[in-house]
Specification:
- The chain is built from 7 helices and 6 strands; from the N terminus they run E-H-E-H-H-H-E-E-H-E-H-E-H.
- Strand 5, helix 6 and strand 6 form a beta-alpha-beta unit.
- Helix 2 crosses helix 3.
- It is globular and about 35 Å long.
């Protein structure tokens, strides 16, 4: 059985270690986060602190979007878009990693505390009973402060999250 995490598509593009795991992992990604990849790859704004790192990350993002646009993968993603909360068939990202796109719907239950993509991450996490995986410390802090009933891992704790058996316990 694979470990599941809800995350943004950009995390999968930026952090290569997410694709090289010792156990099977499934990343559940809201469709709107997938769309953000297109904005990020074409943005003049730096995503990383150094221009060299920024070029590298944007190249990885372009590779991932090109992969999602391959006919079979595009067809799988399109299947999820027919109904709210539908999920695509899994798309392989390597030997042990796969991604599933979910057509999450932001129903604004968290008001002004979280932006629409963050809200979709939280709702997807609750719905799928899978922890959120992020590199945004401020998002983790807001989740804790708002007592949102999800489990969340910082990207730096990814190996621990993969290796632990009780990673899906709810707060």
């Amino acid at each position: 059985m694979s470990r599941q995490f809800v995350t943004e598509a950009v995390m999968v593009a930026i952090y290569g270690e997410l694709l090289q795991t010792s156990v099977p992992v499934e990343y559940i990604v809201p469709y709107t986060s997938l769309l953000e990849l297109y904005e990020l790859q074409d943005s003049d704004e730096l995503l990383m602190s150094s221009p060299e790192d920024d070029r590298y990350v944007k190249a990885r993002i372009k590779e991932l979007t090109a992969y999602f646009e391959e006919p079979l993968n595009k067809k799988k993603i399109q299947k999820a878009l027919h109904m709210p909360w539908a999920k695509s068939p899994s798309i392989l990202l390597g030997e042990s990693a796969r991604i599933t796109v979910i057509n999450a719907m932001d129903t604004a239950p968290y008001g002004e505390l979280f932006d629409p993509v963050e809200t979709e991450l939280l709702l997807s996490s609750q719905r799928e009973e899978a922890p959120v995986l992020t590199d945004q410390i401020e998002l983790i802090q807001r989740i804790v402060e708002a007592a949102v009933p999800v489990h969340v891992f910082d990207i730096e704790d990814f190996q621990f999250a993969v290796e632990t058996d009780n990673y899906t316990q709810h707060i």
